[in-house]
Amino acid sequence: MNNLKRIGILPCSGACNVGMLSTKAVVEILGEHENTDFVCALGLPLGIESIIKNGKSSDGYIALNGCPVRCATKALESADIPINEEVVITEKFNIKKNKNLKSEEKIDQILDELKGLIDKIDKE
Ligand code: SF4
User: Fold this and answer.
1) Per-residue model confidence as pLDDT tens digits over 21-44
2) Dist CA 59 CA 67 (whole Å)
3) Angstrom distance (rounded) from CA 76 to CA 55
């Protein structure tokens, strides 16, 4: 019945405002889009076989990076997972990186961006 592509989203989950925003955004999206998967950031570069296998089970991928260090992108690349879309939150939403882990700054805009990318990948 549901022919939507499965979209894996990997948040960088960094210990700062934008890293936490990446995780919060993915948690929100998972509740709204049943065709999305939360890809575990740490297991990929560590070479954990079961996590890589799970990580490769989606049809398309979004790397959600907090900042230009782009850890989410690099984690996907480390497992040879092709990236359809990449977001860098500091640059895309003009948010300064800080240590406020409870920040909700521009979360609605980040969610809108993710929803648009999910729809875009689904139509590719
Ligand atoms: S991309 Fe930036 S915010 Fe995210 S984990 Fe890496 S250094 Fe931290």
Assistant:
1) 999 999 999 999 999 999 988 999
2) 25
3) 9
